[in-house]
Amino acid sequence: MADLLNIGLSGLSSNKTQLSVTGHNITNVNTPGYSRQDAVQGTRVPQFSGAGFIGSGTTLVDIRRTYSEFLTTQVRTSTALSSDVEAYRSQIEQLDSLLAGSTTGITPSLQDFFSSLQTAAEDPSNGPARQLVLSQAEGLSRRFNTVYDRINEQNSFINKQMSAVTDQVNRLAGSIASYNDAIAKASATGQAPNDLLDARDEAVRQLSTFVGVTVVPQDDNSMNVFVGSGQPLVVGNTASRLEAVAGKGDPNRLEIEFVSGASRQGITTQLSGGELGGLIRYRSETLDPTLNSLGRLALSVSDQINTQLGEGVDLKGQVGSALFGDFNSPELAALRVKSYGSNTSNAQPLLNITDTSILTTSDYRLEFDGTNYTARRLSDNQAMAVTENPPGTLSFTDSGGRDQGFQIVVGTPAPAAGDTFELQPTRRGAESISTVLDQADQLGFAAPVRAVNGALDANGNITGSNRGTGAISQPDLTSAGSSPIDLTAIKGALPVGLIYNGAGGFENPPGTPVPGLTLVGGGTFQPGQKNTYELDMGGGNVVTFSVSGRPENGDTFSIDFNSGGVSDNRNALKLADLQNKQTIGIDPSVTGSTGLSFTDGYGDLVERVGTLTAQARQDSDATSSILKQATDNRDSLSGVSLDEEAANLIKFEQYYNASAQVIQVARSLFDTLIGAFR
């Protein structure tokens, strides 16, 4: 009877444990990361009898969790990838809406500004039309400023998010280290602490939502966690930290440092995956290039408009004033150069823009070893050739001989050996653009030179009339020695009279060729055709005009300073034409290289961001599907099924009752046996 009783008791005990494990599964059905557990039974050592081995009951062998390292790793990897893409997508969608919006983008303001120029060109002496140009210029500069501010707010948000995420990473790293310690101690008994293992796996999964990690299991059931290119975030029961600190090259951009004990290592560019990886990727691949592209456009608009205005004259006969502020002011030039925190000198070089049409959208890094300067373009990591001429002024060209469109003025104090500088030629262009002209009559809408049929007296009045049908077009200033132009030099070279000699040439005085006058294409004047001439007035100032018809011998054509250009709109038309003129991204090393217009330049930026946004949405859908599939695969193995557990409850309850019945039978037999001896 004792054997039967022990068998029943063993079954009762084992099934009680089975019911406890089943109940534990059911109550943890909604616990994140929980893996279903099973109680594994085995037979006890049988007893030998003359008839053979007789079973002695059951025993509990193990409480085992249903777990796959492969499926768990898939979930962890998919989580890191999905979080990375989601963080990137949430940011770029905001940027895309800002740039492409009909009320928030740059295009509407650009169109309004050039429309006002077209209106003013139709009646250049109209005061309200001129005033509208100033108003629209102010609107355009403010639109650039506003878009820059909105994009820069994203940078501030990313900084805050990076700080918050690193705090979460450090918290979870500490939890994982604590779990490692508890698991290693519990595993010393020879059995795996299932619930602790599940809790640690869930902590690692949560960690992967913030940053991509690599997990390496250890013999004592602990696991080491690595980030970046192998930096040990958790080793056993010891956790290191990540810290978001001000960037060495740009304090406005936080960088990530790996902190282990007293040592620090910058790992920003090495991190990938998770929310942190997505934010860093968005900032480097999209945010910074967008700010640089927008800044380049603002610099080009400011430069081209101011340059063209400086080649015209206003209603008072003076050189046209600049409409936008000087982007090479010492204050702005200094802001384009960031000194690394490790620099030993107080040097503050200045970065001056020399040619906005050939600027790239990249940042640069400049280093000084005490003797030589070296530079690298960060967008493609290409080394730049640094030329110092004159002393203290540095110019940069790439491997193709392309000038980068800016120069560095070293100044004093001079850099020290080991100093490093971050160069940002276009980063603040959209922030710094401003409208400075407030007098509409100072807009240089007129051309500086004019042409008339006939000779001029000392007061600029026409004397006499020509006998032939020859006519001279209004001259075009095709080459300005400087902008703003030197009116004194131009006035000194004018007026110039062209006296037709009847033999295919112009003279003044008769018998003497006109200095600086050349017929484009060579040869002699062809009556009845359009003949194009260039007149070099000295100082780099060249005007182009044409003479057509059939002039008679002695007919005179005069070119003079346009002192009364009230109704002259030639320079205003050139200003309006800048809307479609290719002035951005020209490669000077390629003959005939064409760039982009203002509208196309901004359109190219919007298209690039739009393409990246569409790609991010596709990536988001794909990674979400991959994560769901990986999670479903894991749950199909490790997840708790309430239907299955309910069936187990019934089964183990029946087992329990049956084991109890065995005990009852053993008791009844024992009582019968005792009764037989009474």
Automatic annotation (TrEMBL):
What would you give as a GO molecular function for this chain, any one?
Answer: structural molecule activity
Which positions fall inside the Flagellar hook-associated protein 1 D2-like domain? Answer: 342-425
Biological process (GO) annotations held by this record are:
bacterial-type flagellum assembly
Primary place of residence?
Answer: other
Report if keyword Transferase is assigned.
no
Which UniProt keywords are present, listed alphabetically?
Answer: Bacterial flagellum, Cell projection, Cilium, Flagellum, Secreted
Please provide one cellular component term from the Gene Ontology annotations of this protein.
bacterial-type flagellum hook
Q: Which domain of life is it from?
A: Bacteria
Per the record's keyword annotation, is Secreted included, yes or no? yes
Q: Which residues form the Flagellar basal-body/hook protein C-terminal domain?
A: 638-674
Task: Identify the residues that the record assigns to the Flagellar hook-associated protein FlgK helical domain, covering every copy.
Answer: 93-324
Q: Where is the Flagellar basal body rod protein N-terminal domain?
A: 5-34
Q: Which InterPro entries match?
A: Flag_bb_rod_N, Flg_bb/hook_C_dom, FlgK, FlgK_D2-like, FlgK_helical
Annotated compartments: Bacterial flagellum; Secreted
Name the SUPFAM superfamilies on file: Phase 1 flagellin
- Which family would the database say this protein is a member of? Belongs to the flagella basal body rod proteins family.
User: What is this protein's record name?
Assistant: Flagellar hook-associated protein 1
